[in-house]
Amino acid sequence: MPSxxxxxxxxxxSISLCLGAVPKWFIKPNDDHQIITGIGSAKNPKDAKINALxxxxxxxxxxxxxxxxxxxxxxxxxxxxxxxxxxxxxxKDLHLLGVNTLQSEEHDGIFYIRLGVQKQxxxxxxxxxxxQNLNKINALxLKQCQALDLFKFHTLDRLLxxxxxxxxxxxxxxxxxxxxxxxxxxxxxxxxxSPKPYAHAIFEELDSALISSLQKELTKFFKLKPTISSNLxxxxxxxxxxxxxxxxxxxxxxxxxxxxxxxLPRANFIFYKKVKAYLxxx
Length: 282
Hints:
Layout: H1 4-19, H2 24-27, E1 35-42, H3 45-74, H4 81-94, E2 100-107, E3 110-118, H5 119-139, H6 150-173, H7 181-193, E4 198-204, H8 208-218, E5 223-224, E6 231-237, E7 241-247, E8 253-260, H9 267-279
Parallel strand pairs: 4-5, 4-6
Antiparallel strand pairs: 1-3, 2-3, 6-7, 7-8
């Protein structure tokens, strides 16, 4: 089904064609492959520009999806549906980057506009964003422990997905293929820890029912298998409540929290929410 962003401008264009008032440049295809363009028309300049920006974003998205699909087909892979979402997200952020008005005109109360952006500007921006992501991955200090801690694992997962999508988009925009050795090393570490980081859990002074309920929540985040470099998770019941501590392979405390003794019947649900909040922190 055609994108609404494409339907609206062309619906207005069809109506205008019937009135015979469309400028010739408005219906002429763009023949400069170094510039990506978008057209829009409306009863006022502001809405015409908004329609042109939407059309421009759609043009970029369609071009990237087309090129990426060809590459994926050549490699006998399917285009990841999440990549399409990523394209739309990134283009939404980028479609104002260096956008210029190429032509504009008013006919019989209808305003027509053509906007354009240099493809090189988009390439430059994606190169910058990829470099920023690689710096963030490097800052995680992945070689510190063979087993990644939970926060690093989820952060790395997010950064790898983002960076991979941006590289695929970049390669669709650029004539040359971009690859990054540092990214492959990060992938190797991530896959070594997949699908979940290893952890060893210790329960002190807890009854079997509470241990069982907490283990069920733990397995949503960890693979419970003691190894030399496993994360260490300690649950210790005191008169004040349940103390929870996460330590990495070097013994550094990464997470430390407590569940009040009055809330122990719901300790498993509270623990899950606390860990999710820990992972979602900036």
